[in-house]
Design goal:
The chain is of the alpha/beta class. It folds into two domains: 234 residues, Spore Coat Polysaccharide Biosynthesis Protein SpsA, Chain A (Alpha-Beta Complex), CATH 3.90.550.10; 70 residues. Helices cover 51% and strands 17% of the residues. It is built from ten helices and eight strands. Strands 7-5-6-4-1-2-3-8 form an eight-stranded mixed sheet, sandwiched between helices. Helix 2 links the parallel strand 2 and strand 3. Helix 5 packs parallel to helix 8 and helix 9 runs antiparallel to helix 10. The two termini are 23 Å apart.
């Protein structure tokens, strides 16, 4: 715990890095004067998430010339969520800011975030209003994702909240001791822990270099894992599907009896085929949903580490 006054609170900035050799120097050149101007004692923590390019060499070079830089390097790629969690686990700050290295998260908002911290905020959600690099499809699916998760769970998450966020030391302590699932959604967790929250809107800048590491397929899998973490509504779908099937069955039984009375024995071949296809479709969907939940449970039961650190600077 820190004994400093709010004016002198220690700041930790955590930067997730995966194959960002083209932007790291640009990022450092942009954030260094911004951090210096805050007047805070700070540390800049780069988390190398198993990069296969020269990202770690660049971080090493930067750290040799700047004593405020710390680095954590994973033994392999564990994912963006694991990188943020590793940074939070090892951060010393009373104020912690997480962001990406591609400069889409504007460093110019750091002073405003610090100001919000000093006013008593424990969680600062950075709400992305525009992201030109994402494209139409990703923007639409992002809105759909938040609408789905808010509709299916008891949590109410800020729409378009990003991986650019700030948390206080006591929120970080909660994440260090609890919320240690193997399948994670940290920006959802920080909105779910309570405490005093603030929101700051920003427009995402263009990428300084490289390309997005999230394909549509990865985003879809991430979305499904997140929904499973926050909601059991998909499991309850089986109950509603069963009730719907019973209603359909009753309607078809009544229709068959009426047809038999009026016209004799009905030709039910087409009806049977349609009903069988419908029932099997619902059944396979439910089996798939149950399988996804079992997959998450299996990952938790195995108890494997969230990340493995190969090197720390």
């Amino acid at each position: 715990m820190f004994s400093e006054s709010n004016k002198n609170k220690y700041l930790s900035v955590i930067v997730s890095v995966f194959n960002e050799e083209k932007v790291l120097q640009k990022f450092y050149d942009a954030i260094k004067p911004c951090l210096e101007q805050t007047g805070k004692t700070y540390e800049l923590i780069f988390v190398n998430d198993g990069s296969t390019d020269s990202s770690m060499e660049i971080i090493r070079m930067l750290s040799e010339n700047d004593s405020n830089i710390r680095a954590i390097s994973f033994s392999r790629n564990f994912g963006h969520e694991a990188a943020m969690l590793a940074g939070i686990d090892n951060a010393c700050g009373s104020y912690i800011i997480c962001m990406d290295a591609d400069l889409q998260h504007p460093v110019r908002f750091i002073p405003e975030m610090i100001s919000s911290f000093e006013k008593g905020s424990d969680v600062i959600n950075m709400i992305r209003t525009k992201n030109h690099d994402a494209g139409v499809i990703k923007n639409i699916t992002s809105n759909m994702f938040y609408s789905m998760i808010n509709g299916m769970s008891n949590s109410s998450l800020e729409k378009n909240a990003s991986d650019f966020f700030g948390i206080s030391g006591r929120v970080a302590d909660v994440l260090r001791s609890d919320y240690r699932e193997k399948v994670r959604f940290i920006r959802g967790y920080i909105q779910n822990v309570g405490f005093k929250k603030d929101r700051i809107e920003y427009e995402a800048d263009d990428r300084a270099g490289g390309k997005s590491k999230y394909s549509i397929g990865k985003l879809f899998r991430f979305s499904m894992d997140t929904i499973i973490c926050f909601s059991d509504a998909p499991l309850k779908f089986g109950i509603y599907a069963g009730l719907f099937a019973i209603i359909i069955g009753i309607i078809m039984a009544i229709y068959t009896i009426i047809t038999w009375i009026r016209e004799g024995a009905p030709n039910g071949y087409a009806t049977i085929v349609v009903l069988i296809c419908f029932m099997f479709g619902v059944l396979f969907l439910l089996v798939g949903i149950i399988g996804m939940y079992i997959s998450v449970l299996f990952k938790e039961i195995k108890g494997r580490p969230v990340y493995i650190i190969e090197e720390m600077l």
